[in-house]
Amino acid sequence: MSNILLVGSGGREHALAWKLAQSPRVKKIYVAPGNAGTAQVGENVDIAATDMAVLLNFALEKKIDLTVCSADDPLALGIVDTFQKNNLKIWGATQKAAQIESSKAFAKDLMAKENIPTAKFQTFKNYDDALSYVAEKDAPIVIKASGLALGKGVSVCQTIDEAKIFLKKVMVEKIFGDAGKEVVIEEFLQGMEFSIHAFCDGKTFQLLPPAQDHKPIFNGNQGPNTGGMGTIAPLPWVTPELMHEVAEKIVRPALNGLQKQSAPFSGLLYPGLMQTVDGPKVIEFNARCGDPETQSYMRLLKTDLFEILQASVNGQLQAITIEWERKYACCIVLASGGYPESYVKGKEISGIAEAEKLSDIVVFHAGTRFENDTLVTNGLPAKTLVTAGGRVFGVTATGDSLPEALEKAYAAIKLIHFEGMHYRTDIGQQSIKTLNV
Asked: pTM, whole model, 2 decimals?
């Protein structure tokens, strides 16, 4: 029986904790800092996900057998390196390997060296040079802050004027802080976007089913990018042949390239892809589980997650067979009013218990916390569930078909309420329309 420390506080972490809690080999799960949902399957610990020293001391004190980190900031800061130096087992990418996400410029350079298909690009550290480059290009054009920006540092600019405005916000006004000190400017790719995830152990990998995230805030992929407003998995239009192509032309070369740079990748490699007329091309690489893709994946995973993570950490991934339910899953994100811009926290939430009484529904918490009321029930202060973030919940459902899973999720959403709640009503519709599944 093992004690687990899970680092993070989002819907992804609730989904991972929920799945780990089902393992007969897991004794106790600590989540730092966690949310109201993780508190239901483990014990929340009031330590920031980026507080390396305190997290390390906690892991040593509690004799943690395995730490699981799937949050981008701690990986970029080197939490894996810190724990490994202290002889603690931890699942995740080292700081050097995590550069494939923490620096888009690093990732693009890696792709160029390994002939991994991606959009044509240029990187810039000087604003005037970047501005001149943009002025010579045609729209639409894509501008990306090179560093970590919570999934929001990318803009598909429909006009050159729009591109100039966004470039100024990133490099001059620094709306993403140091993440915008360097930018990647690239051609706009047309096609169907999808996500691939791969469990890795430094030497080998195993692919998860294909998924599709929906980044823009509004229906029809309109509005600014978010951390993700919903996912579906698997994708009916992604064939085994396409998966093989992704494995051999994208995932394997990326892992080989990192190996050449003395940065073997262990953990979860997640390339965001565009299926173009020329085949799959990389939009970006991530060095951790997708959020909200993970919420859908955990609903489909049959194999003990703890065993997968242990095999990954121990370099024994090839020794296990990972099984998945032969179903479809979806995750619909419920967001606070104003997200991804400014929003108000502390809005009272109702309807979660009612929603989860419906068939095949699990609600994963993201931006939530409990707040004590002045009312007293049975001699104890009552607790009210309130909003505490931009993305508040991920409502997940499974079904024998994609339309069935989506219908169940949207039915459950109708039972949930908080002031300002909004969500996309077209999750998965592009894939359904494409193949009429």
From this structure: 0.91
